[in-house]
Amino acid sequence: MVPVRFLLLIPLIALLNGYGVEARIRRYKWVVKNEFKSPDCYRKMVITINGRTPGATIRAQQNDTIIVEVTNSLFTENIAIHWHGIRQIGTPWFDGSEGITQCPILPGATFKYQFVVDRPGTYVYHAHYGMQRDSGLYGTIIVGLPDGESEPFAYDYDRNIILNDWYHNSTTEQAVGLSKVPFQWIGEPQSLLIHGRGRFNCSSLSVPSSDPGLCNTTNPDCSPFRLIVVPGKTYRLRVSSLTSLSALSFQIEGHNLTVVEADGHYVEPFVVQNLFIYSGETYSVLVKADQDPTTNYWITSNIVSRPAPNTPPGQGVLVYYPNHPRRSPPTIPPAAPVWNDSRPRMAQSQAIKARRGYIHTPPAVSDRVIVFLNTQNEINGRRRWSVNNVSFTHPHTPYLIALKHNLTHAFDQNPPPDGYDFLNYDIYERHPNANTTSSNGIYRLNFNSTVDVILQNANTMNPNNSETHPWHLHGHDFWVLGYGEGKFHMFNDPNKYNLVNPIMKNTVPVHPFGWTALRFKADNPGAWSFHCHIESHFFMGMGVVFAEGIEKVGKLPSSIMGCGQTQGL
């Protein structure tokens, strides 16, 4: 018989271990450091979390508290980690945006992030300092429903895949080229990775190396990603993109993909063969293992929206159990979509609607409309990206701290423009006057107001060229009201908005020579970045900052201080 004193302890032990309570505390300790890895068979220095890239998946349930202690063991670089898609309600200082919500984590320092994951869904985390995401500092966050609740779709197994592109030059080399005169573009990526694994053609090296380990296709680091499935079972694949540059098409040979979730929100299901996915987006697709079980099938990713003839496709293998995992499919990989045909990409964007029964109806009208013209420009001969002819620069003092402590000299107090000369500006022309200005001014939003943002794409500094830009908003989800081709018409196009069942997202593309309309509530006190999720574009100035409800922000933790004018606060 169990002694009574031990029986009395059982409820306490259960409570301490998180059983019988709705919310738990999930603790992680990470050491971030440089290591040599060969994710595409070519050895280079990367940034790892506890020795891994991608880093470990964070798994939690809705309303759990996540605590991550991050030790920066890089020798010479600062870091910051953004929890992409987590709204940070009540904890804006832990958003992880260096220069906006915190000072960076210095080499040798340990920083504690602590926040609540308030919604179920698929999210990601990644570096938000310089262009470090390109070095491998990223991973997935999976937030499940509370015990006893179920998804509005059925599946047998849950898996996650991160898609990425990969460069052999370091992010420092890339940044120097982007900042120099004359401008030196980073070029197209050397490889595409499927969950951290790719395959570079070592024989294509322009200068053969005397080091046999520099590029070695037998290195286990670059063995293909393999997903083992049981015949007849249905799999939920959580597919995320954290590319530095590339828009991608993802497909599994011979299998339909049923889209059911986007950026943490349920989607009215629709079926695709190619999932077009842009940097910063997350999707859940259902895949049934219903093909011939005696063979294996290709998993591929291909670049779209850019010409990249020298970048090989990302390749993995869907392995039907009990086939040997190393057995290659007997077919050639499926053909990629035509890279410069934007019509199917636009069609998929327009097909994404909120699922019936899970629709969050947007406000019928907005209080403010801001139009962001995306252009490529120059400042003193240096190539920049601009919004309404203003190129964004980070201040030395993070905005959240400067605003809360009224440090008015920390950044430009003049707001950037709310629009551009839409009547006279020709989005299809390379404009003869490419000069722009820079600013670190911000957009101040009335708290609880409803804001419309129109993203307007235009020609770059190259003739007949317009690029895809995936825009990500920190601290909020927004309603996607519509997409269009050409120039947004301020009086006619709002009549076409979807106010019935628009999907809510945190990242959305604006297609070449097109526009995208968003609506969000400025109801989360803090300072929040809104920027193109392409690393080089944000580095070159393609972003803005929104501030709202600063007076409602609580006492800032001292751990986010230490840089710029925050020293001594």
Automatic annotation (TrEMBL):
PROSITE patterns, per database record: MULTICOPPER_OXIDASE1 (PS00079), MULTICOPPER_OXIDASE2 (PS00080)
Keywords from the UniProt entry: Copper, Disulfide bond, Glycoprotein, Metal-binding, Oxidoreductase, Repeat, Secreted, Signal
Lineage: Eukaryota, Viridiplantae, Streptophyta, Embryophyta, Tracheophyta
Catalytic activity line of the entry: 4 L-ascorbate + O2 = 4 monodehydro-L-ascorbate radical + 2 H2O
Annotated EC: 1.10.3.3
Entry-linked Gene3D superfamilies: Cupredoxins - blue copper proteins
Protein name per the record: L-ascorbate oxidase
Molecular-function GO term, any one: copper ion binding
